[in-house]
Each structure stands twice: as structure tokens, then as C-alpha cells.
Amino acid sequence: MSFSAKENFDHEQERATGILLTNLGTPDAPTRAALQDYLAEFLWDPRVVEQPRWLWWLILNAIILNTRPAKSAALYEKVWTDEGSPLLATGKRQREKLEAALQERGIGAVHVELAMRYGNPSIRKGLEALREKNCDRMIVLPLYPQYSATTTGSTFDAVAKVLKEWRRVPRLTFIDAYHDQPLYIEALAASIRDHWKENGKAERLLLSFHGIPESYFENGDPYPCHCRKTARLVREALGLDETQLQLAFQSRFGKEPWVQPYTDETLEKWGKEGVESVDVICPGFAADCLETLEEIAMENREVFLGAGGKRYSYIPALNDSDAHVQALTQVVLKES
Ligand SMILES: C=CC1=C(C)c2cc3[nH]c(cc4nc(cc5[nH]c(cc1n2)c(C)c5CCC(=O)O)C(CCC(=O)O)=C4C)c(C)c3C=C
Ligand SMILES: [Fe+2]
Ligand SMILES: [Fe+2]
């Protein structure tokens, strides 16, 4: 058995702190072939789909990887930019700004690398890049404010898989959640207030979070509780009541029940009940991506307007805004 180490290591080199900023991942291109590779890796993760392996292997390879890649590629095509996938392009800006903000804090040498749980740039490459910069202290910050085993837990698996091969395991902090961090809540509230100032305030505000299967929650995943706490804190920060601000879960996949209420059903119900205007924000997404730009800003707009609604506004993710970078800086500094 041999373990890996930094190339040309020098025992006298200055030590540094490394931050591994991670997100879910994204295909390399909006094409069927790229989607097939990306979905094969993503959907084979047992943290994401907990079905018995043999059964899921058959369903995934016989059905899903033959049908879904072309459909997903067409959706990605709608949100693709000159810089590539929005999730990755924004991630690169978040990395750069977070590194600058942390370096300003005078906490010694600090480097930030961006990595994706699935696809590129990989978690292995990110950790190795930090090791090359002499980081013997590392903080992993998955860009998921609310903990879920499907996302945060899976990121931990990927980090552990790499580090167990290293000769020098760094001092490690793994940030599990920041769903109630005050600057994160304040950044969300400020972004909503700014949106209201420019566009007027809708009758209702919907906070839409990515869903998970209900059985995962019943088996102990705290994700829906974290989402509810974020929603309550944002509601209190804005001084709204429980009819004015509500929470729902989007992006369900497969046939089993996911945590409820569902975003599309909620918007359809509101449209039919005569609610004329809604604002929608997705606090669980640190960066705009397919699930916000296509599913929420396009598909669900049609659902609401088709059910009788008159005005539908999507409030962007916090992305690389100064308020978001400050919130992430605070999350990291708390652990330094
Ligand atoms: C199969 C089950 C899935 C679970 C469970 C799941 C949980 C989950 N996902 C996110 C964040 C994102 N998901 C994104 C895309 C995406 N998610 C699934 C499936 C599950 N997600 C699929 C199949 C896809 C790919 C797109 C598609 O084919 O529909 C993304 C967007 C990535 C991008 O490139 O833009 C994000 C982000 C969270 C937060 C979460 C659980 C809490
Ligand atoms: Fe997802
Ligand atoms: Fe989706």
C-alpha cells in the first residue's frame, strides 16, 4: 500500500489554510453525450438514490440513461451561457471573491479552490491543488445552506475517499450547514427587499427548495427542518405572516412521494384561487442553475400564469453578490 504526498514537499515551507468550495456539479456541455456521463455519475451515488443496487442498476442503465440525457440536454441548452454552465461560471466568481475577502481579513496565507461533487473540476483535483499550495489546514464548504445526506453527506464521502489515500491528512473542518447563519438570512432578506423596491411587492412570496424523497426525511435526514428554519427566519426578517410567505419543494424525480408541498402544485393552486401575483426565490441554491433558471423562472411561470395568475417574478439566487460573499466569509471565519 502506498500513500500520496505533495510533489517536491519541503518540511520548511510556510503553512497555509485551504478552503474547498464545492457545489453539486454540472455537465461539461448541453449535449446528450455529456449529460449521459454526468447523470451516470450523479445518479449512481447511493446517497442520491437509495434503492437496492441491482434494481437501480437495471432501471438506470436500461431506462433512465437512455431517455433522460436527451431531455435534460434540451433544458440545459436553454440556460447555457457564453461562459458555459451558469452553476460553474458563478462558482468561479464566488471562488475568486471569497478568496479576496478572506485574504483581506489577515488570517495568514489562505487559498480557495472550487470543486464539483460530480463532473469537473473534481474534488480530487481541488484537494490536490490546495495540498500543492501547502495547505495543511482545510475547510470544506459545500454550497448547500441546508444539510442533506444527498448533497452535503455525499460531498463528505467524496472528500474522505480522497483523503484516505494521503500520507499527510490535513487538519480538517467540514461545514455541514449554514441555514440559520445571520448574514445568509440577511442577504436573502435584502435581496427580496431590493426586488420589491424595483418591481413592487407581489401578494405572495414563495420560498422554493429542492426536494428529497419523503422516506429520506422519515429515516433522519434533517433537510426539511433546515429549510423550514431558513424560511421562518427570512419571514421574521421581512415582517411577513404565514400566508404572505410560504415554503414548497421542487424538482421531484421518480415515482415515490417527495417532501411536500410541491412547488408546481402550490403555484397552480394559488393561480386557481385567484392569487394574482407571486415572487419566487430559491434560498437553497447558492448559485443559479438549471433548477432555478429553467424549472422555476420558466416552467413554473407557465404553471402559475396558466392557472390564472397575472404576474410572476423570479428573484435570483445570491450568486456572487457582495452580501453573499460576506455571508460565506463569516461562515468560514467562524471555523478558522
Ligand atoms: C435523483 C434524485 C435527486 C435528489 C435526491 C436530488 C437532491 C438535490 N439536488 C440539489 C441540487 C441540484 N440538483 C440539480 C440537478 C439535478 N438533480 C437531480 C436529481 C436529484 N437531486 C437531477 C437528475 C438533476 C439534473 C438535471 C435533470 O436532469 O433534471 C442541480 C442543477 C445542476 C446544474 O447543472 O445546473 C442542483 C444545484 C439539492 C440541493 C438536493 C437536495 C437537497
Ligand atoms: Fe437535484
Ligand atoms: Fe429540475
TrEMBL record:
Pathway connected to this protein: Porphyrin-containing compound metabolism; protoheme biosynthesis; protoheme from protoporphyrin-IX: step 1/1
The keyword Ubl conjugation is annotated on this UniProt entry: no
Broad class of enzyme this protein falls into: lyase
Biological-process GO terms, alphabetical: heme biosynthetic process
Statement: the UniProt record of this protein carries the keyword Lyase: yes
Reaction(s) the record says it catalyses: heme b + 2 H(+) = protoporphyrin IX + Fe(2+); Fe-coproporphyrin III + 2 H(+) = coproporphyrin III + Fe(2+)
Keywords assigned: Cytoplasm, Heme biosynthesis, Iron, Lyase, Metal-binding, Porphyrin biosynthesis
EC number: 4.98.1.1
Binding positions (Fe(2+)): H210, E291
GO cellular component terms attached to this protein's record: cytoplasm
Classification via Pfam families: Ferrochelatase
InterPro entries reported for this sequence: Ferrochelatase, Ferrochelatase_AS, Ferrochelatase_C, Ferrochelatase_N
Location within or outside the cell: Cytoplasm
GO molecular function: ferrochelatase activity; metal ion binding
Family, similarity comment: Belongs to the ferrochelatase family.
Job of this protein: Catalyzes the ferrous insertion into protoporphyrin IX.
Protein name listed in UniProt: Ferrochelatase
Species per Swiss-Prot/TrEMBL record: Mariprofundus ferrinatatus
